[in-house]
Request: fold
Amino acid sequence: MAASPRALRNGLPGSGGRPCPFPKWRRRRQRVTAAGGGASGSRAAPLPWQRAGSGGGMEPAGMEPAGMGMEPAGMEPEPAGMGTAGMGVERAGMGTAGMEPAGTEPAREAEEPPGSPALPAEPRQGPGGRAARGRARRAPGRRGGDEGGRRPGVTVDSSKAKTSLEALKISLRQLRWKEFPFGRRLPCDIYWHGVSFHDNNIFSGQVNKFPGMMETVRKITLSRAMRTMQDLFPLEYNFYPRSWILPEELPLFVAEVRVMKDSDPSWKPTFIVKPDGGCQGDGIYLIKDPSDIRLTGSIQSRPAVVQEYICKPLLVDKLKFDIRLYVLLKSLEPLEIYIAKDGLSRFCTEPYQEPTLKNLHQVFMHLTNYSLNIHSENFIHSDSVNTGSKRTFSSILCRLSSRGADVKKLWSDIISLVIKTIIALTPELKVYYQSDIPSGKPGPTCFQILGFDILLMKNLKPMLLEVNANPSMRIEHEQELSPGVFENVPSPVDEEVKVAVIRDTLRLVDPQKKKRKDAQCPRLEHVPESSESLPDAVPAERPEPDGPRSPEAGLPSLCLKQVFPKYAKQFSYLRLVDRVAALFIRFLGVKGTTKLGPTGFRTFIRNCKLSNSNFSMAAVDILYIDITRRWNSMGIDHKESGMCLQAFVEAFFCLAQKKYKSLPLHEQVLSLIEFCECHLAALDEKRLLWGWGVPERRGGTGGPCQAEGLHLSPAAPALLNRTATASKLADYRTQRN
Ligand code: ADP
Reply:
């Protein structure tokens, strides 16, 4: 199947098999302007959430009635022993749901699932947004931002915004912020980058990318991070398909599949092979047996992930679809996560059939990528958000809801999936962050919009496919006017969702809002992570009360909902690797590095008192060399020598298993973390008392620094409270003895 968009573009059914004189695109500008009038017509049409309950009204002309098209109404349990159940990913009901008893916070969040976002105070983006961009709108009651001379606008450098530029421009116009399309000599408040963090000239303000995010969410790195979490918390992380990394885990893959097939001969799995660093379905193919892996030169030069294929996805109109959800990582420390209430659903263009040897290669049946399906002659462009090959997620939820599906639980499971995934990613991100923006050095703070690709199984269990560091923020799509002639036309569905996400991200990171908030209520500056109720008191996710002077007046309510720290209590126990990463960062040594040298590792062992007669320093060195060599031979990052975080985590797990035999892995790891943190806190205390100075903490990630307890920045909080540390250590010793 190995579909490459480029190959597809050169001879696709949709283009009549003729080579496309690509990129011969013309921008249909008149459509953008005309849409002011044209779109206002579509704006008048009820939005999907306004139609909830009126099943018939949701069905587009020419499409099957919902009852027939949807397979199933949603709630059929997965037949035992089928699909991937044998491999442990389809244990619906045992996973996230088990963690969140009814009535817990995510369930409350689910009372307002994306199907029912608050209606904007006035026509907004989407079909309405086009009108908004056509004429300079003035929100009722607003005298304009800086025009009145009262409030200098927030400044945004959009010179590197690339394909997100158009959506950004609309957002900035709605907010009345100042755009600097060619950059600015003076610093800006916000730098909007289309691709990555990197820019050596930014010393202040905020950048919409985290350093290292692209590396962290690559297919292989994500799979490794999820595997670590699956090892620690198998049930909590069963929303990620079981994966193996090629070529290094090929023998393991072959062996595990053989064992599983032997134990359950009826198991007929399918696997999907995805090249690392690939996107838009590039190079992806399906296989029925490990021996089908294409072990050409390319697998060596281009590592890949092979993953269980989810054979029983939820279908709508007989088609497979996936969900693109937008998630804002507003701050790494303290962790702040927001989820957009609405996302996109991208549809396949051939009716789905469970994979067989005959249909394995059918891209339009199995891969939901927009970039592939747009080339199918069945692709339906629609200006409506609830028809066609790309729709809003809320329109799907409405449809599911009208069929009796429990969309509150689904939404709650999605929130849970997002929080857990980010928890898996933060340790690596923190290492990159301290390396690129060491504390004490001037640098910007970061936030980032991530694209989560989620597949719903037939039983409505959401499964994570991948996380995109640079989700497309384009609000246009290609249309083929005549064979081989393409043009870009506005896409109301994209605009509806993406402009709201960008605009509301900007509102949440608004530096002036923060200043105003600090001035009004300085005590709210640091939000304790563990609080469930306090975030309700923090107005960050709500527009300020409308009033003639409020810069938020006239803007719709925020489409981004805070989920962390809001639900921190339920998830903080999962943040073990974060604490291991804090230890790793402490011993990194020279600033600007992401790898631990042998001396740093030895110091870690010594300071944490992990060496003894059973575990000599020579054994420590051997452990370091063994693990580091193996990780470095996997060839992920040759730039630096030394032990990467993932290798350190492996060494740490090894030490934990050695020290606390017979406990489950997560308890072993937790015990070792507490042991290390106590010793380091005591050491820092001693240093402070003796006036030796304390090693500079470099785990900080630029957000408002807060005391997070011992676990996130070991020792720092302890320095603030010596008595607590001393008694904790004493308690610890008593418990151990
Ligand atoms: P890419 O970054 O190239 O888009 P993805 O991981 O998103 O790679 O996979 C591409 C498409 O393949 C997805 O949109 C989805 O339709 C399908 N897909 C990926 N992984 C699986 C899986 N484990 N089970 C079923 N379908 C999958």
